[in-house]
Amino acid sequence: MVSAEKNSILLTFDVEDWFQVENFKEYIKFSTWNYFELRVEKSTFKILDLLDSFSFKPKATFFVLGWIAQKLPGLVREIHERGHEVASHGFDHHLCQNLSHKDLIKDLRTSKMFLEDLTGYEIYGFRAPSFAVNDSIINTVQEAGYTYDSSYNSFSGHGRYGTIDLTKAQKKDACYKINDNFFELPISNFKLQNRVIPLGGGGYFRLFPFYLFKLCMKSVLKKENAFVFYAHPWEFDPSQPRVEQASKGFRFRHYINLHKTENKLRALLDSFSNCNFVTCMDYINSINIK
Prior knowledge:
The protein is α/β, with parallel strands linked by helices. It contains 10 helices and 12 strands. Strands 1, 2, 3, 11 and 12 form a 5-stranded parallel beta sheet that branches. Strands 4-5-8-7-6 form a 5-stranded mixed beta sheet, sandwiched between helices. Strands 9-10 form a two-stranded antiparallel ribbon.
């Protein structure tokens, strides 16, 4: 049961491996993925064990790539059995806008059904690779049978992040009700006057000093009563192989402070232990948007 008197924090993790990130696609082709070492299981277990180490048992949502689920079905079942929400990150980590409507529907439905077969439970949520969405893609996500999307990132300084029109949606706290059967949970960012500062997680969480991240996070919670945080299991794996042929910018963004991620997440959990750490679907069910 989610307490209405507490702020809610939605921890979300995009379950993909180190060689599958968009910044490295120029150097690591999809056709070669089978030849690389799978490290995602160990780093995801690191996250699961960290969450279990807290007495208040924070819950999270894991957006699992279908390709990973196919290779590591036991990992998907473990996430579910530990009480967390399993959601979809698509199947092959292709950018949604690069797929035809037919191929996108196939990707969305195949990943959803595959994860449902593994867990025995309905899969409600989707997150697009690289937060690359638009209104048409959001409509297709709903068409594919999902209840919510969590792909919109309002930071405009990243070339791949998409935009969607939420002006007609009903908003309550961190959730937008697009229609009676579909919701959007955007990544949380910090707004300074008219400027959006990327705050929701990932490389920004690793880059910003924790005291500053915490201060901005408190400001968002005061305004929204909720915070949507994201990270990837590879961010908890400082020993992962290096893609030396990648550009300096991509290498900086990917490898900066990997050795600090686990302790920073632990500090976040400690600092906000008075909040509800809930899954995305439990949060949507709790806020009762009219």
